[in-house]
Fold Formate dehydrogenase.
Amino acid sequence: MAGTIHRSVCPYDCPDACGLLVEVEDGRVVSVKGDPEHPFTRGILCAKMQHYERTVHSPRRLSQPLERCGPKGKGSFKPISWAAAIERIATEWQRIIADSGPEAILPYSYAGTMGVLQRNALIPFFNRMGASRLERGICTPAKDEGWRAVMGETPAPAPERVLDSDLVMLWSSNAAATNLHFLQLVKQAKKRGARVWMIDLYRNAGSGVADEVFCVRPGSDGALALGLMHLLVRNGRCDDAFLAEKVQGFIELKEQVLPDYPPERVSALTGLTVEQLEQMAHAFAVAKAPFISLGGGLAHYSNSAMTVRSIVALPTLTGAWERGGGCFVGTSTGAALPMAKITRPDLLCGSPRSINMSQLGDALMRLDDPPVRSLYISHSNPAVVAPDQNRVLQGLAREDLFTVVHERFMTDSARYADILLPATSSLEYGDLFRSYGSYCVQRTCSVIPPVGKSKSNREVIRLLAAAMDYREDIFFRDDEEMIAELLAEPNDWWAGVDRQAFQEGRPVVLTPPRAGRFHTPSGKIEILNPRLRDPLPCYLEPYRDELPLQLVTAPALKTLNSTFFERDELREPQMSIRVHPAEAERRGLEDGGSVHVFNALGEVEFVLRIDEKVPSGLAVAEGVWWREFAPGGRTVNALTSQRLTDLGGGSTFYDNRVDIRRC
Ligand SMILES: Nc1nc2c(c(=O)[nH]1)N[C@H]1C(S)=C(S)[C@@H](COP(=O)(O)OP(=O)(O)OC[C@H]3O[C@@H](n4cnc5c(=O)[nH]c(N)nc54)[C@H](O)[C@@H]3O)O[C@H]1N2
Ligand SMILES: Nc1nc2c(c(=O)[nH]1)N[C@H]1C(S)=C(S)[C@@H](COP(=O)(O)OP(=O)(O)OC[C@H]3O[C@@H](n4cnc5c(=O)[nH]c(N)nc54)[C@H](O)[C@@H]3O)O[C@H]1N2
Ligand code: SF4
Ligand SMILES: [Mo]
């Protein structure tokens, strides 16, 4: 490496939060490598980030503020200065607030950057304004709810615990695409003799590591977990001492719930054979430390929280938690940092309404009192990532909706902006990064100046706060001070951390306090949770209608949600949908042909791929594509609904039915 080397972190919404070594020459990033000293990611990067410099210096980067000069959504803009852009926004907002009140303004942001400061920058601002609140449930809150129902605030085990397991279950996890470094650990566990199962809908990209793949019916995993527990009880394989001492509600589960889940019924619900169920229950019972790595696929259904509850309960029956096994749903380090210092709930003006981000389409199209009259989109791309795309686009196209977008690229959402502001990439600001796949944290500094006239989320909010005459010092404090304030109060999580190393930008590892105990109101694992409407787990049916195929809208290997589509080499050549040969034959469809996939919500044109690995009854469409690469101008979310999960207000991206016909 010839230039100067700087440590940084991958900023994207991926559990791994890889450590980076960034080489800079003359203010430009020339190469990006993995940091071999990072304790979890150890120098390995996925394909997406190996050439991050191509994203940072992409010719597609937005470099100056723009103002719309053509019809809404057409993407015709003319340059405008930062000062004029900010003044226009403040003037429009003041007018809207005077006419309709601040609830007529809605911020929309999610996870374009995971940096703690930048990701949350707009929250105190819109709190202070009294704008409509956004319920940020587009990802997998149902998974958290399911975990919390049983385990309360118990911190997740460290992912490295999988190394002690002799039976690893990749359950609804596409780890090759979405959790690469955990997959490395699984491979190590396998070398030490562990067996690996994949429980999924189809053989996804990570299936090569699995000794056995169990393909289940979509949304039926709750029944599978209850069926396995039925067999553990029937076969006398429970750890009675552990259950009596550490678990609340096992007797009730055993007497009131499990009799309803004999293998014959569970076979019919899940699509697995009775023999497979018996074999799974036996292997689970004899394993010393069965370890479930629970991914997010099954958390996008209308029954998700209940499904997760049943799965989290499963390892308690054999006392697996005591022996190094258990269930890993991702780490949560929320308690390690006093986040309220950043999000400032105390600034909230009034008690404005909440709008669920997965129901943006309805929120924009409803004539509530007041209707949404202005939208501020930052580090998110709702025109393609939000469900019910047709409804969202209809809303974004409203001529009377004043839309501001802060973005790095001309995304589908950016095209609908009235004012479009250029955003910096993560190498152009400093921040603090946590991870939801390990307990590493790391701080970063900007390593290059902003590209063009781009500005970070915090800087834009600073300008908007000044223009709106909001004087609270949170808007004006510099990033250093903010990080110092976050770390000012002593906190058990940081007890063993080398502060010097952290200040120098090295990755460090937090330790969850009082690990090994169950942080629930009863102090036990709560299979029975008396605080919930359904105190015991049971099986809830996912969504069904008369259409014959379940649409699986899984992440693509080399793109991340709608991010990275600016890079030609990372996109698949065509937006395709995969089905089993029998489904293609039944409809007279050919491999490589154009097809319409449709349901009551919309119709999307794909290229058909015939794939033996996809079971009958499924249609798999990977990636959240930009509309410019979609032959019919609509992408997969034109087929997904605004329905929410049973708990947590989550999205139901995988719980949709479709059919396919030739174009
Ligand atoms: N490359 C890449 N990485 C990503 C992302 C990306 O888009 N691309 N997205 C990021 C984000 S935001 C997230 S939330 C995570 C998500 O990452 P994961 O937690 O891995 O979740 P998904 O990839 O949504 O789904 C995982 C698997 O669940 C399967 N699945 C779907 N429904 C069911 C079901 O009912 N039962 C079972 N057993 N399996 C089911 C799918 O087929 C898929 O193989 O990945 C992050 N990382
Ligand atoms: N069909 C289907 N839809 C899905 C999913 C799926 O699996 N299938 N996954 C869902 C899930 S789990 C999630 S989490 C959501 C993700 O939804 P989003 O969080 O909206 O994710 P991205 O599509 O990555 O869009 C992030 C945008 O932020 C921009 N950006 C990056 N850094 C910055 C910055 O510092 N400042 C600003 N202002 N902008 C920045 C990027 O250029 C990018 O356009 O998508 C959901 N949508
Ligand atoms: S997307 Fe995930 S695996 Fe890839 S570099 Fe970023 S953190 Fe690492
Ligand atoms: Mo997500």
